[in-house]
Fold these 2 entries.
Entry 1:
Amino acid sequence: MPGRIITITSGKGGVGKTTATANIGVALARRGQRVACVDADIGLRNLDVVMGLENRIVYDLVDVVEGRARLRQALIKDKRLPELQLLPAAQTREKSAVNEKQMIKLCDDLRREFDFVLIDSPAGIELGFKNSIAPADEVLIIVTPEVSSVRDADRVIGLTEASEKSSPKLIINRLRPAMVRRGEMMDTADVLEVLAIELIGIVPEDETIITSTNKGQPVALEDRSVAGAAFTHIAQRLLGEEVPFQVFDESDGLMERLARLFRRNQ
Amino acid sequence: MSIVSFKGTREGLAITFGEGAWHDVLNELATQLNRPSAQSFFQGARVLLETGERALDVAQIEELIALLAQHRMTLTAISGEAHTRAAFEQVRATMPAPPESLAEETREASAPNAFGKHALLVQRTVRSGQNIKYAGTILVIGDVNPGAQVVAEGDVIVWGKLRGVVHAGAAGDDNAMVGALILAPTQLRIGKQIARAPDDKRARQFPEVARVRDGRIIVEPWIAS
Ligand SMILES: Nc1ncnc2c1ncn2[C@@H]1O[C@H](COP(=O)(O)OP(=O)(O)OP(=O)(O)O)[C@@H](O)[C@H]1O
Ligand SMILES: [Mg+2]
């Protein structure tokens, strides 16, 4: 059976597309799926850094598209998970170095060898976004619980629907339960109310993501990480498992927990 | 089957060519598009062409595109025989991309209503960056999100939350109205009047209607009268 091509995109930049691609890739591979992560952010590649594979790059996506390298030569095997491979982006080229047709062809070749092809989309709604969406069977939209991020996600959902893809699914990233409780951050319901698409994951704000990103060790490699568990749940849902959505409470400050205890006992 | 038939789809207006000489097809299409009642119905639509077994060459497709363009219609796809599709790909490579707006997709739902005006029915969430314009009344079954725009020469009725920019009576008709289950637009215009949401407005959770009275936009609960 040919693999599924899933594009991870957002509209607004810096909301966690690359982080999500790496971690969902890791989580799927840990469950025995053959996964190719494709960095479509040509000119601003960093999926390789997040996955800790930067120093192994010989050829990149543009080399494959332009026929200088075969797919097999450009794909980098993950050092920890044999099922996981990365197709890095070119760093010295521009988005216009590839077109939609080439992306479709490339991903069709990949899906013959892999169960999942995960595409890390660049930010924005221009050429790079269109190239990333063109081959997708499924689209995951990342949003942070902020008005501007939600607005941009809405725009991208509209564009995805217009390109005749099945309805995209939503990942809410960097949720801070304590802020939500204080009414300082949109909660899941607020975001869903505007975007009105299916939710596939909620990932809390988690400091370990920053350190793990710097080390090139995606959090989904570890079982203890809160964000890692959230990404694993997304992978499970992609595989059709029913996983209840977690309620995040632990990350509250101690004072707040005490305050709530106190209130409850009154 | 007639030589040219029309069908509304989610992606746009589907036009099917039956059997017959090419110039008969073109003539029939031109006649259909020129019918006065068809004018607002077709204006601006995205067209998906079904050509069946008929082989069209580049020149014929260009002829078609030119005819459609007279009605501000865009040919976005052809399904049919392989040569025809190849010719279309060739033409399309030299064409500018079609507009991304989905405004036209729902044109097929347009029909004269009880007031003799045409109404456009939109059954989906109208999302940020999307723009719906229509020369009659617009009825949205769904939400109009912030960053979306709905502009009607007639009324605008939203069976959902209206949070984008809305303009009713856009050709200058102060008698037009805007109604919504939750009326919380970023900006609301009727005819020549403009109102924007007060910066601290909390949306009221009951249907409201906006009209112009004495040169000002007034919002009141929407109750059957
Ligand atoms: N759940 C999280 N908790 C804490 N930090 C996070 C979380 N998700 C992402 N980050 C941090 O946010 C920053 C941006 O993340 P990332 O690079 O994945 O975003 P992106 O959408 O790919 O950005 P770009 O649009 O530039 O490609 C990174 O520093 C990352 O470590
Ligand atoms: Mg990125």
Entry 2:
Amino acid sequence: MTASNQTGAQPLIELQGITKVYGTGQAAMHALCGVDLCINEGEFIAVMGPSGSGKSTCMNILGCLDTSSAGSYKFKNIEVNRLSRNQRTRLRRFYLGFVFQGFNLLSRTTALENVELPLIYRGTPARKRHTQALRALETVGLKGWESHTPAELSGGQQQRVAIARAVVTEPEILFADEPTGNLDSARSHEIMDLLTGLNRDRGVTVVMVTHEPDMAAYANRIVHFLDGLVASDKANGKDTL
Amino acid sequence: MIGNTLLLALREIRRNVMRSILTILGIVIGVAAVIIMVTIGGGATVQVKQQIASMGSNLLMVTPGKRMGPGQSSGNIPFKQSDAEAIAREVGSLQSVSPVSSKSVKAIFGNQNWSTQVTGTDNSYIMATNRSIKSGRQFTDSEARSGAAVCIVGETVVKKLFGGQDALGEKIRLENISCEIIAILMGKGQSSMGTDQDDIVVIPLSTFQRRFAGNQDVSMIQISVQDGVSTEKVQKDIEQLLRVRRHISPSDDDNFNVMDMKEIASMLTGTTQMMTALLSAVAAVSLLVGGIGIMNIMLVSVTERTREIGIRLAIGAFEHEVLLQFLVEAVVLSSFGGLIGIVIALVTSVWLAGILGVPFVFNAGIVLVAFLFSAAVGVIFGYFPALKAARLDPIEALRHE
Ligand SMILES: Nc1ncnc2c1ncn2[C@@H]1O[C@H](COP(=O)(O)OP(=O)(O)O)[C@@H](O)[C@H]1O
Ligand SMILES: [Mg+2]
């Protein structure tokens, strides 16, 4: 936990002994076997590790999209595992942003409407919602593409819409599970620049899964997963101490 | 929040035009079919009832022959006018007794001709068959006795021979006699059997016997029973009297037939009511088929919709918000479909009623039932698949294949 001791402040997220078991009995599959992890505000973390090591499972638990089998997950010192379904929804709605490898945009729905969606659930008034969504799309470099549907956009553009949707609510932390997994190298670097910008300029904490060292290089801390455990966790050489 | 939900629901409907149209279509067809069938069926029943009422349900028809329909009297001893007079004299509780003989005859006026039914009878026949004179007068006693060449004609005959012109006082040719029109009957329209009741020429019985038949026979005796009197009792009395007059020994069957119009009437109403029930059953099936169509569409789209639910949950929608959106979608689609169905059904019913010549009877009950059923179908098939998906963890819904 070298990198987590940089600041004396309360960590944003604290995982302790998080396990996740899929199935029961003979077929039980231990995807996470006791993960400990601290995430501080303002960090840009890259999560790496071989396929099947539990990265996605851990991200889904962090993003409150899934629940752990055992262990403690504290978000801002609140025990998430004790929250009700609706309280966890509220966490997603107001504090967390999530970017999926497969984009998960609503099909046949314009980029603008996709980005507006989280604001609708937040109850943002129409006019404000509209300007915020437009600004978010502009931030990800999609000015002029607002009325295009996912089918009319390239993979890179779709991922940028997804990022715009995740950040339009100005979340405290952004989780991205292999955001560049489906993109070619040039598009991938654009996405990384975008995430780096959000982290540096807006102070958004970013946790990103990737298996490409090129992309991990953008982060200031790299966590390695192996067989459902954190195998190593160190600061990225470029900007530590 | 309701406003937002409505917005989300309407966006989703607009996005999936095809799915929405198919859903609406299923409901439209079901609702329209049910309403049309029931409305037309109801109209037909009402029409039959009206006609029976206008025919006079207290009517008895006495025909010669054994247990056969009217007109099938060949080979049997016909009645005479004296039989009718005997019935009038000896059977109580009667309003009128009309001896009737009729024949199909070509009527000619100028260069117009028209084949019609010439009926020889007396003045009481007009009232007994619920007809009335629109203009002109009845037969006088002397005309009736002497067999004068006078006639009372129905509206159809006037229309066919005279166009729109006044026919009263004109002379028309029936076979080779020239007959003066002394009255025109009030229009009566079609009978429940589809015959035109205004296509008729009435002449005195004696005229008919002398100039058309050449004998003293009466082919049918039409009897109108006083209101509130049991026709069964009267029927029995007439049968007894006629058996005596026709010298039938106790061991022999009647060689005549006394028919109660009430029997015919209830048979006819029963038939139309059964037809309505049958048609309604067919319509209900089509409503069900529409419902199954909707279910199909919903099931086909369930994967996509489950992912949609996963996305909504993942970006912070509450379970109840997602469900409310699906409920609103289902209700909007099915009530829209229901309303279109109702409009189509009413327009079609009015049009069909016109073509079939039955009255348009608005049945608010069936409209309501069809509408509620369509709404229920939409809600059940649109909402319940969503109910399952919205209870999942977002990641499970997103993973749905
Ligand atoms: N829904 C699931 N049901 C059963 N096993 C699962 C499920 N999701 C993931 N797993 C298993 O859990 C392990 C970790 O998966 P995952 O977190 O997706 O790994 P990674 O993202 O690092 O490739 C894998 O062995 C995978 O097979
Ligand atoms: Mg993964």
